[in-house]
Amino acid sequence: MSDITDPGLAEAGVRRIDWADRSMPVLRRIRSRFRDEKPLAGLRIAACMHVTTETANLLLTLKAGGAEVAVASSNPLSTQDDTAAALVADGIAVFARAGVDMDTYYRHIHQALDLAPHLVVDDGCDLVNILHTERADLLEGVTGGCEGTTTGVIRLHQMAREGALRFPVVAVNDTATKHMFDNRYGTGQSTLDGIVRATNILIAGKTVVIAGFGYCGRGLAERARGLGARVVVTEIDPVKALDALMQGYRVEPMAQAAGHGDVFITVTGNRDVIRAEHLTVMKDGAILANSGHFDVEIDVRALQSLAVDVLRVRAQADEYVLADGRRLVLLAEGRLVNLSAAEGHPAAVMDMSFADQALTCEWLATAAPTLPPGVHQVPESIDSEVARLKLASMSITLDTLTPDQEDYLSSWRSGS
């Protein structure tokens, strides 16, 4: 049983999934091994993820490993309906349709959980949250899970601190390969791609205000500057703010940046980063975009209360007309602009993130029963293996240590 928009879109979805697969050589190698070894045989896996062509290749890898898989979308606007249809045709239960309301969004998560999973794969912690609050009857059968977003990891740590988390969850988001590729290079490119598709603006010459200078913010700042923007960074962390400053970016509080920014992008994992006091001083035509996981970083309700009219000016751009005549443009309803107005990260980026996910699921298949409830890191060997496979797919070779070098590094007796 599934809930998708149109099964007739499957053929088009297969073509697009295959296209993405061409840029995902690491996951393809893992899928080939999984098909032979069946490391996930007998396991049921429920996922809450963006239903895109890249995610499809991960889900097909888990299925190739012998798992029974069900997926719900982790964002009401990010589902690619043809991809969903292709997955259903390939035997994966999919509960996702583009543009659903919030009631349907949560119903889909419940339907994916009806699989009674052994393992869960989450983006944003909504599935794990519902497991603990509304579907606790299933917890006894869940041995472990993976989380792929910064927002989700933050929520998991909060659950763990309160003693609420009942099974081990691996923070796949925190691996070096995921941070490097997905957060930095992926978010940097795909967010600007979404903004340009939604608005067709010229980035060069604009003042782009980036809220948050973690890996995502760094990637965004690099790409925006590369396109000719003047970049302003807002931060609450003094170390990250200093890093931004030393990289040549202007660092200001949002209250100051709000008055002169042209484009505002939030990537913090927190709520109400752009609030009413900021909206009231923004210039006419300012563009608001969010690339954090949930639609809480921009206070959309405050924007609605300030507006006297709202106009849909482009497919993913709503113009809020304020009482004084100023117009503020909100993209993708404040949701993830890179997935709602574009196609998310390039497949070559997601290749590494989803390779991390696949190998972590394989590891959890045997390791989960030995792990205590809480947030765990991906074993370093998995991170290194993903990087090694990626380099191999790009025909890159590395130096190796000589015996003398190994002896030198392992001894404290050798001095200068």
Give an overview in words:
Belongs to the adenosylhomocysteinase family. It catalyses: S-adenosyl-L-homocysteine + H2O = L-homocysteine + adenosine. Its EC number is 3.13.2.1. The protein is of the alpha/beta class. The protein has two domains: 7-178 and 345-393, Rossmann fold (3-Layer(aba) Sandwich); 185-340, NAD(P)-binding Rossmann-like Domain (Rossmann fold). It has helices at 10-21, 25-37, 53-64, 81-89, 102-113, 126-133, 150-161, 176-199, 215-226, 238-246, 254-257, 276-279, 300-306, 337-340, 347-367, 380-393, 403-410; strands at 44-49, 68-73, 93-95, 119-122, 144-147, 168-171, 207-211, 230-234, 250-251, 263-266, 287-290, 307-314, 317-322, 327-331, 374-376. Strands 9-8-7-10-11-14-13-12 form an eight-stranded mixed sheet. The chain has a seven-stranded parallel sheet with strand order 3-2-1-4-5-6-15, with helices on both faces. α3 links the parallel β1 and β2. The longest helix is centred in the middle third of the chain and has 24 residues, at 176-199. The chain is globular, with a radius of gyration of 22 Å. The protein starts with 9 loop residues before the first helix and ends in a 6-residue tail after the last helix.
